[in-house]
Amino acid sequence: MVDVANAELTLRGRVAVITGASSGIGEAIARELAAVGMRLVITARRTDLLEALSNSLTTPCATLAADITDPATPGALLTLALRAHGRADVLINNAGRMVAGPLETVNLDDLAEMTRVNFDAAVRASYVFARHFKAQGSGAIINVSSVAAYLSHSSMGVYGALKHALEVFSTALRVELRGSGVRVGTIAPGSTDTEMFSQIRQRATSAGISLPTPLAPADIAKGVRMMLECPSTANIARLLLVSAEESA
Q: Any catalytic annotation for residue 159?
């Protein structure tokens, strides 16, 4: 069992960079990590929501309103962490979007943009921060995946494929960094009550499909904290966290 008091001392004062932090799971992760004294850098596109979140936290928090698909954004986040807090210890790649629909009507440009957000941007940020973490001999990268990485849903093939690709990439990066002091893992949420899940709920309701009671974003945030609280000799490589009512 993790010694929570000792874990809090370990995380306190460390610096976490969180993408997609303006709402949902990203916001919940920011609040959970701030509660144990971590300093933060948060990013998303919605400036007003970022600032509101930052102002509500009791721990130092720097914000960057940016498009995560901009190739310059990961480097800017690392620079901001070093300038604002003097260090960087954790990267949470949480930014994501969902595009789904039958092949006859799904927007191909939207699918391409989802690829840039859900995979390309996560890969670029992982490499930028992994290089820094490896040089300093410590760090952690957690990529937010999805239960969809392990399932095949009609009309959601690209979304699921991108999350599966993120899982494979994360595993390969973890193996490449073994022995460096840098941990890499994925957390795969099941149904979670976010803006993205609202889209799924609307489609299910229209089709007369009953959905399980979803997890709360705070449940995923606690999973992320647990992964970070692991002893330095351990690495939770993959955490699948689903609703108690879910059949996945």
A: yes
